[in-house]
Design a protein that fits this description.
CATH superfamily: ABC transporter involved in vitamin B12 uptake, BtuC
Protein name: ABC transporter permease
CATH architecture: Orthogonal Bundle
Largest sheet: none
Structural class: mainly alpha
Membrane topology: Multi-pass membrane protein
Helix content: over 70%
InterPro entries: ABC_BtuC-like, ABC_transptr_permease_BtuC
Number of domains: 1
Order of helices and strands: HHHHHHHHHHHHHH
Number of strands: 0
Family: Belongs to the binding-protein-dependent transport system permease family. FecCD subfamily.
Oligomer: single chain
Pfam families: FecCD (PF01032)
Strand content: under 5%
Distance between the termini: 42 Å
Shape: globular
CATH class: Mainly Alpha
């Protein structure tokens, strides 16, 4: 029945042809091949001589393979989280960084360290997931109760909320002498990734499949609460499920890697410029582009001052900030023309 409803919406609103494009097009296959090439390059970039040392290939499977897998899974997770959040809120500037979700995840990690002096990765991940869910729901509830005239105000409010949570986390960390834990989280890096410390990231594949299965319902929810309810969709339930999936993805990334800014902002916006806003057809593209961007940033972070390494969040944050400014300028241009 939902497929019929979705089809009806498409006909009534004169949906453009990209909604019916096949996923495995020539351009998408080329993009996948490009990401595979980047992954191969990532496997052989590093200071340690894999081929010249006796234990080189052991280190290859202990560090290089897990790091590259973590790059691909993390890139897909953060880009996908941004896409879903933008669809639900009907705002192109919303993603885990601009809503305070990542800062809430950091607060969850700090809370776990306060409760358990030497927490396992599972405990840290659960704490980050729970606090990410709470923080995202707080942001969504605020948007539902306050009517904002400009879409530009939404990310500003989210950034302010994130700054407050970040400041509180820093204060608590200093008060309980745990500032080192907070500092490590703020510096999102793949350097510590190795076998045994990244396996939870494979859960992201399950999240991606679930979001793809819910794509039609999420697309209808993105039309607005009134329209979604008029089409027979339980709007609150689908938003709750989407928020839970986002919280799980962001929580896992926060616990394993750390803070990765702006990835969920730039990737969905780049894809929507060329393909529109259909979730089901854009999701594979968003995942692939997210993988490619974060892999490129990580390769740059490992080679720019070799043999030392810059945190990937520094490269990603710089690129994301530039793209964010460009998107803001594109949004303001039509108003000036009027």
């Amino acid at each position: 029945m939902l497929k019929k409803i979705t089809g009806g919406v498409g006909r009534d609103s004169h949906a453009p042809p990209y909604n019916h494009n096949k996923i495995w097009t020539k351009s998408f296959i080329a993009a996948v091949i490009g990401v595979m090439i980047l992954a191969i390059i990532s496997l052989f970039v590093g200071v340690y001589d894999i081929r010249g040392q006796e234990d080189g290939w052991d280190m290859f499977f202990i560090t290089r393979v897990p790091r590259t897998a973590a790059l691909l899974l993390t890139g897909a997770a953060m880009a996908m989280a941004g896409l879903v959040m933008q669809l639900i809120t009907q705002n192109k500037f919303v993603e885990p960084t601009t809503t305070g979700t990542m800062e809430w995840a950091g607060l969850g990690l700090l809370f776990v360290y306060l409760m358990f002096p030497s927490p396992t990765l599972m405990l840290r991940m659960l704490g980050a997931i729970v606090f990410s869910f709470v923080g995202t729901m707080v942001f969504f509830l605020f948007l539902r109760r306050v009517k904002l005239r400009s879409s530009l105000i939404v990310p500003i409010i989210g950034l302010m909320l994130g700054a407050v949570i970040s400041a509180f986390s820093t204060f608590v960390g200093l008060f309980f002498n745990m500032s080192q834990n907070i500092q490590n989280w703020f510096i999102g890096s793949f350097a510590p990734i190795q076998a045994g410390r990244y396996e939870y990231l494979w859960i992201i594949i399950i999240i991606t499949i679930l979001i793809f299965m819910l794509a039609s319902r999420l697309t209808i929810a993105g039309l607005g609460e009134d329209i979604a309810k008029s089409l027979g969709l339980n709007y609150n339930t689908i938003v709750l499920i989407a928020t839970m999936l986002i919280a799980v993805a962001v929580g896992i990334v926060a616990a394993v890697v750390g803070n990765l800014p702006f990835l969920g902002l730039i990737v969905p916006n780049i894809i929507s410029m060329f393909r529109g806003d259909d979730l089901k057809s854009n999701l594979p593209w968003v995942c692939v582009l997210g993988m490619g961007i974060i892999t490129v940033c990580d390769i740059i972070s490992r080679t720019i001052i070799m043999p030392f390494e810059i945190s990937v969040s520094v490269i990603l944050g710089t690129v994301g900030a530039v793209v964010f400014i460009i998107i803001l300028l594109r949004q303001r241009r039509p108003r000036r023309l009027r």
